[in-house]
Specification:
heterodimer, A: 124 residues, alpha/beta, Hypothetical Protein Ychn, Chain: A, 5-stranded parallel beta sheet, 4 helices, B: 123 residues, 3-stranded parallel beta sheet, 3 strands, 11% strand, globular
Chain lengths: 124, 123
């Protein structure tokens, strides 16, 4: 279906907390789908979205899929590292070293540069 | 995007699409994700003194040939079923308007790869 000669880099910006809205999961599905079709894709966690990177998420009682486990599987789709808004991570006192996959904190200037260098930005 | 019954997001998106076409741009595809799949429901009834949120999308498809795609994972979750999915999951009725097609996220990826611009109306 996809013409392999056409690739556009995609940045998926995730602002939703992991279990507060179905958009949290849907935005990760978009990233996985783009990666599965061979498109270069990066993820930026921002605002409440940084909570998706919390360690030790327990979802059995909630009856929904575990976002932490999904994030841990991203390297299988060649997404080796994600980006995190440093200000939001600090506000939530997030320990990036224990995130489910390597996460690089970016300041505002670096986030601006990240947005600039992608062909498409999808914000959720 | 959000559900057409909640807030202005869906109306803004369909008006934006019509405005683009009026200015001579072309739209390859509209992809509806998450609660946005509610835009494709044929069974919504809007109050008489409010705007119809379905008709602008149907006109995009019928008058301008714009593809309207509902994400299948979201569509199933939100009960937005076409004939095939209603039968497959043994549900009483299909609820998708025929102007819309239920398909996968690959349709979004494909359109993004082939387009100059990707515009999102986020939740």
């Amino acid at each position: 279906m996809l013409d392999a000669s056409k690739t556009k880099s995609l940045l998926v910006v995730i602002r939703h907390s992991p279990y507060g809205s179905s958009l949290a999961r849907a935005s990760l599905d978009v990233a996985l789908s783009a990666a599965a079709f061979g498109q270069p894709v990066d993820l930026l966690f921002s605002g409440d979205g940084v909570l998706q990177l919390l360690q030790g998420q327990q979802t059995d009682a909630a009856g929904v899929k575990n976002i932490e486990r999904l994030l841990a599987s991203l390297p299988l789709y060649d997404i080796e590292q994600v980006y995190v808004d440093a200000e939001a991570a600090a506000r939530y006192k997030l320990e990036l070293a224990s995130a489910p996959l390597p996460a690089l904190a970016l300041d505002r200037a670096a986030i601006g540069e990240l947005l600039q260098r992608h062909d498409h930005v999808l914000g959720f | 995007m959000s559900s057409p019954a909640s807030g202005q997001c869906a109306m803004t998106a369909s008006r934006f699409a019509h405005a683009l076409l009026a200015r001579g741009h072309s739209i390859r595809r509209v992809f509806f994700l998450d609660a946005g799949v509610g835009n494709g429901l044929s069974t919504t009834v809007f109050p008489q003194d409010e705007a119809d949120r379905l008709q602008p999308w149907v006109e995009l498809s019928e008058q301008h040939g714009v593809e309207l795609i509902l994400c299948i994972a979201s569509a199933l979750k939100y009960g937005t079923l076409d004939e095939t999915e209603a039968q497959r999951h043994e549900k009483a009725a299909a609820s998708v308007h025929p102007a819309f097609t239920v398909s996968g996220l690959g349709q979004l990826v494909d359109a993004a790869a082939a387009s100059d611009r990707l515009v999102t109306f986020g939740g």
